[in-house]
Amino acid sequence: MMKRSTLTLLGSLSAVLALVSPLHAEVAWWNTTWTQRAPITIDTGADAAALTDAAGDATVLVRLSDAGIFASAREDGSDLRFIAADGKTVLPHQIESYDNLLNEGFIWVKLPGVKPSAKETVYLYFGNPDAAMPAAAKSTDAYDADTSLVYHFAGRGIAPADSTANANNAETAAATAEGSLIGNGLRLLGAAPVSIPNTATLEWKAGQTLTISTWIKPGALQDNAVIASRADGKSSFRLLLDQGIPVVQLDTVRSQPAAPIAAATWNHLVLVADGKSLKLFLNGALYNSIDGALPALTTPLTLGGLATEAPGTSPYAGEIDEFSISKIARSAGWIKLAAINQGPSDAAPRTLSLGALEGGGAKEQSKFMEHLSLFSDIAGNMMFDGWIAIGICSIMIIVGWTVAIRKFLYLNSIEKGTKVFLHQWKSLSTDLTALKPEDTENVSSLGGQVDPSNQGLIEKSPLYHIYQIGSEEIRHRLDKDNNRVQGLSGRSIQAIRASLDAGLVHESHRLSDGLVYLTISIAGGPYVGLLGTVVGVMITFAIIARSGEVNVNSIAPGIASALLATVVGLVVAIPALFIYSYLNGRIKNSLGLMQVFIDEFVAKMAEFYRPAIETESPGGSSH
Questions:
Q1: Residues 6+ apart with CB under 8 A from 131
Q2: Any idea of the CA torsion for 545, 551, 556, 557, to the nearest 10 degrees?
């Protein structure tokens, strides 16, 4: 019996988990004025970007080529919105280019806290026909405050424009490389370089941290081709490509040569200054380094170099794309993510992949699901003590529903058996003497009237059990008379009735068995939930008192999560109350039917087994 109950309990738990899991997997629709969305998965695991350390806040590239998006979104892509995995947070984005004729788009999206060996899903929403739709965040917010400059080189034949809020625009126009690595790029022909004037956000202080990131595609291998440089008298910095070997030069100190890159191929080159050394990363991996710190420089920064810049150098001839400067030393995870995500390798589509389109108007998220998603947010702020209360309530739900289901099935089976039994009893009760109490099989089959196929069903009926008790008592009383006179005294009838009433009590216990778990759920669920709420509120106020932060944002999450315990307690008690009332009503009906049957059985017994007539002898004694 214990093993059977355990299996039933586990089965109920599995059913509950199966119902709950899809609800947690479903992400609420962010805004119903946007009719469609597409999930975007960012994978930093071993099969994709293979990050081993955190990238932190990173701006990733989303390449769009799905015709369904361009067919439903606005012509300029102004209705594109990127929403975080929580279904609420709007992620800043910047459109580098968007062509709904060629079905090609390059969008930069800011992701907070990118972790290694993890998967995260964000959502691209589009298809908003409302002309007065809410405006997107500023495009410059797609880059963090530590980013000093970003050049996409998206313009044609103009000076490169800074895509950050710092407005560090170049002074000189440059040739455009159509169809570069990411949209348009910069083409340097070995003549005039691109000059970037000094500003407060580009000024270098001695020993400061710095990150320069860019993509290069040399047209040919040159001696000491200057990719980027900055010099002031004896203090100088140069990023070179010497016969395909990336080199960093600080004043007269150069990094050691390593394996060269090939001409006419795209490579990701990153310089990181951490205040103690300058490190070069090639395609996401550490390439070489030199000891030393950046000098203080306030002169313009040049891309491509000058022919007369320094003895032995030459202007870089080739393409450059996605040139950026940060005033911090970016992590190795940030560098590798940029190299994989932006690059042409086969790991790029595995690192950031676009899923199937969802929605289309007919599949807009219901208000119910939107409200349901709030419970997920509330649960995320739940404290340990609240989870204890919810755990206890969950056990009550599982045990209570297991008992309720088993009791429901049991009542159904006995009611079916009772219906068949009463049909047969109606015929038998017209002549109870047709039973042969000494014949057990005759009694069990109600005088041979029961179809063998219905025997098992009838035996489940409590009326049948009481009938069996009464028949056994009749047999026992008649066997006491050696002459087997077919009669029962009034005292015997009263004794038999007492046995039938005892049988009624046993059947009542069997019918009510397990209902105590429902009463515990009804009475205990709200109190357990209330205890979790009170403790949660108490801890929330204690935390607020310790931190000194008194505002809605600091109070609301803790109070909401604490109240969730009371909600769960009521969810335990309310269904249990209804179920208990329903089952108790059916049990009372069964007990009433048994009482009526006992009265009828005793009446029939008294009628068909009348006591023998007592005669008085002539001497006055009775026989």
A1: none
A2: -70
* Amino acid in position 172: T
Percent of the chain with pLDDT over 90: 47
List % helix, strand, coil for the chain (3-state, nearest 5). Answer: 40, 25, 35
**What is the number of other CB atoms lying within 10 angstroms of the CB of residue 218?**
24
Residues 6+ apart with CB under 8 A from 368: none
pLDDT of residue 4: 42
**Which CATH topology does 147-327 take?**
Jelly Rolls (2.60.120)
DSSP E strand stretches across 486-576: none
DSSP 130-147: -TTPPPPPPGGGGS-TTE
Q: Give the separation between CA 463 and CA 414, rounded to whole angstroms.
A: 9
Asked if residues 294 and 207 have their Cβ atoms less than 8 Å apart, the reply is: yes
| CA torsion, ordered 432, 500, 480, 492, to nearest 10 deg | -90
* Amino acid found at 397: I
Q: CA angle, corner 240, sides to 239 and 245, nearest 5?
A: 125
User: Which structure tokens are listed for 506?
Assistant: 């046993």
- In angstroms, the CA 584 to CA 513 distance is 11
Q: What is the pTM of this model?
A: 0.58
For 330-356, give one letter per residue: b (16+ CB within 10 A) or e: bbbbbbbbbbbbbbebebbebbbebee
Strands 185-189 and 175-177: antiparallel
Sequence spans of domains, the chain: 36-138, 147-327, 381-609
What fold characterizes domain 36-138? Immunoglobulin-like (2.60.40)
Residue 497 has pLDDT above 80, yes or no: yes
Give, in order, the Cα–Cα distances in Å from 382 to each of 89, 333, 370, 390: 20, 32, 20, 10
* pLDDT-derived band at 5, boundaries 50, 70, 90: very low
Q: How far is CA 515 from CA 267, 508, 511, 544, 618, in A?
A: 72, 12, 9, 44, 64
pLDDT at 582 over 60: yes
DSSP string, 167-232: ----SS--EEETT-SSSSEEEEESSSPEEE---TTTPBPTT--EEEEEEEEESS--SSEEEEEEEE
561 neighbors 379 (Cβ within 8 angstroms):
yes
Centroid of chain to Cα 568: 19
Using one digit for the tens of pLDDT, what is the confidence trace for 213-248? 999 999 999 999 999 999 988 899 999 999 999 999
Cα(426)–Cα(429) distance, integer angstroms: 6
| Token digits of residue 397 | 């739900």
Strand arrangement of the beta sheet that strand 104-114 belongs to = 56-64, 104-114, 93-99
Query: In whole angstroms, what is the distance from residue 195 CA to residue 172 CA?
Result: 6
Split at pLDDT 50, 70, 90, the class of 184 is very high
